[in-house]
Automatic annotation (TrEMBL), chain A:
<dbReference type="GO" id="GO:0055085">
    <property type="term" value="P:transmembrane transport"/>
</dbReference>
<keyword id="KW-0472">Membrane</keyword>
<keyword id="KW-0813">Transport</keyword>
<protein>
    <submittedName>
        <fullName>Integral membrane transporter</fullName>
    </submittedName>
</protein>
<feature type="transmembrane region" description="Helical">
    <location>
        <begin position="178"/>
        <end position="203"/>
    </location>
</feature>
<feature type="transmembrane region" description="Helical">
    <location>
        <begin position="287"/>
        <end position="310"/>
    </location>
</feature>
<feature type="transmembrane region" description="Helical">
    <location>
        <begin position="97"/>
        <end position="122"/>
    </location>
</feature>
<keyword id="KW-1003">Cell membrane</keyword>
<feature type="transmembrane region" description="Helical">
    <location>
        <begin position="43"/>
        <end position="66"/>
    </location>
</feature>
<dbReference type="InterPro" id="IPR000515">
    <property type="entry name" value="MetI-like"/>
</dbReference>
<feature type="region of interest" description="Disordered">
    <location>
        <begin position="1"/>
        <end position="30"/>
    </location>
</feature>
<keyword id="KW-0812">Transmembrane</keyword>
<dbReference type="GO" id="GO:0005886">
    <property type="term" value="C:plasma membrane"/>
</dbReference>
<feature type="transmembrane region" description="Helical">
    <location>
        <begin position="134"/>
        <end position="158"/>
    </location>
</feature>
<dbReference type="Pfam" id="PF00528">
    <property type="entry name" value="BPD_transp_1"/>
</dbReference>
<feature type="compositionally biased region" description="Pro residues">
    <location>
        <begin position="18"/>
        <end position="27"/>
    </location>
</feature>
<feature type="domain" description="ABC transmembrane type-1">
    <location>
        <begin position="99"/>
        <end position="309"/>
    </location>
</feature>
Amino acid sequence: MTAATPPHTGPELRKAPSAPPAAPPSRPATGTVRRSLLRALPVSPAVVLLLLFLAGPIAYCVVIAFTDLQLTGQAEESFVGLENFRRAFRDEAFLNAVWLTLVFTVLSSLIGQNTLGLALAALMRRASKPVRTLTGGIVVTAWVLPEVVAGFLLYAFFRREGTLNAVLDWLHLPSQNWLFTLPILAVSFANVWRGTAFSMLVYSAALNEIPKEITEAAEVDGASGWRRMWHITLPMIRRSIGTNLMLNTLQTLSVFGLIWVMTRGGPSGKSQTLPLFMYEQAFQNSLIGYGTAVALLLLLIGSLFSVVYLRLLRTEV
Amino acid sequence: MPVRPTVRFTALFTLTALASTSLAACGSGSGDDPDTVKVSFKQSTDNSIKVMDTYLGDIKKQFEKAHPGKKVELVPIKAPDSEYYTKLQQMLRSPKTAPDLVYEDTFLINSDITSGYLKPLDPYLAEWKDWDRFIDTAKAAAKGEDGRTYGVPDGTDTRGLWFSKDVFAEAGLPADWQPKTWDDVLAAARTIKEKVPGVTPLNVYTGKPAGEAATMQGFQMLLYGTNDGSTDPLYDRSSKKWIAAGQGFEDSLAFVETVYEEKLGPEVSDALDPNFGTKVRGELLPQGKLGIALDGSWLPQDWLEGSGHEWPEWSKELGLAAMPTQNGQAPGRVSMSGGWTWSIPAKAGNPDLAFEFIKTMQTKANAQKWYVANSGIAVREDVAQDPAYVDAQPGIEFFTDLVESTHYRPAYPAYPKVSVAIQEAMEGVTTGDLSVEEAARGYDEALKEATDNQVVRK
């Protein structure tokens, strides 16, 4: 899995001063080794725990992804090689889930949470303190709510007798059952609603770090708001944009409870993203082996996104 | 801030995402204490419904009194059906988590038997006199393909048509309605649609969100009434193969299509809401907003006193009719039966004590108390004949009577997947995304996949 995120692409390695030129050649190599071993000692308990409770189950998952293990209905499982993966790519429901996962991620994370978070952060810098506190409070509340609770709230908002339709009726606009007609849009909106706070916090912090003199200088030079945003602010916070995109994307890829509560992936699989598809295969159809293979593929998609973001971050401004 | 994304951090993050999908089960297993019998059961997800908790609490008291020094630990699992099965199967996999006694749906019992999760009970049953009181079809419900018995059924259920007498009166339909064919059912629904606006004429559960309810209360109630009405239309027992979609299958799909296309059923979006079953029992029927409901014998347990949706007058306001066969061919009516059994896990620590607990539950008096409490249908002859049971609740006689012409699902290991394939075909014709032929073809494909191509065409 780590193969998809090769260790040399890390920005911190790139930033690290290239090989200390003044290293005394006379120092014996064994001393360095001993010293690094000693330095590693304090973190070793944590590493052992990580290996045991994180790497262990993951290794187990990788193994069962290559078997036909079932939860029930089978006396013994056997090794089936790549069959689960082949099966996934033949399975229309899987391809549908991949497509919906991409739509969901692009809509709710890349476009929704990210842009809205940035816009809110930028607007709130100019807002008065009470407005700032109020907006911040509301947005953060949505974020703090447990996923399932948020799911129920939004289910109540979108359902046929729900708040949204009541508002539309009041405005004499046509109402409809959003969870039925546009399920993927409804759950994407729900994810935006829930996750924007995080982006907003990241961007608020980033914007606060931009030195005032630079923006003031640009203002004196006659740059409009949009130009200042495009040519100064965005380039200066690009590192935060990358971080935020990556965290948002990974978080969004694994959203389960929200969609489960609102639509259960339906109707007819029209909002069945990969985590829901995986759950259905593993736990409802009892196909643990196949479900785990799907989980690994989901992981791969996550890694691909990560690699893209890391590459973007690497380019120096 | 800003957090620097490092490779290590990314890797960790992605790994956590996966770790959250890892398959863990928790809880301590049976056998750590030879004097305690651990009993797992399905607790209702509706907090106001405590039927089983109360019953088991009572049995626990009786058992502990009769067996000094022994203790019963009740381990409730609070989950909707499909999640209950999953949780249970995870517990049964390991001796560390397996309880001594589990409540198994006959829907999955063969699948769990094949997995080696359950213990054959034949040695215990041979020495238990009450076993002879159980009716044969019920005994068969918990029998594995190896001919051994893996569970003691605690009742069964049957299905039929519930109808609102008020709605029928308003529509000018008879209060003693007894349809003879599918067309009679559809005709009544059309009349209601025309004469009583604002009321859903007929509910037939459909689609994946409804799960097994769609398959059993909906589709199979139709399918088993097609053809000659006596042979199994899903599974061919002689060749041990599953039967591909034939005329009867397509006719049943066409019935579902008609219901939703002509808007005789609920709004499609409501029908595909996973919580629709709760709405039918809790709102639509009690409020007289549903004309005819194709549903199970257990509905009144939601309407008993203390259940949260009390409706003692239901027996005056609702009529009951048997579901007819397609064209009225013999035997004239259809019902499906399922039910639950008490089983002992293969990895149970105290199986002997667990069977003692089953015996306590299944004294005639206790069994009778349970059937009445959960609106179950008796599977013991002695109880079924007892006037105290027959009179205990309106409707019991009607549904017990249906046992005669009922069918049991071919609950072999592939069944749960076959059931999903049926739900998908139903959902396709319900939404109008698929024609009947397309849905039937899709079922054939899914059937091959689910059964390793053990399919015959008939």
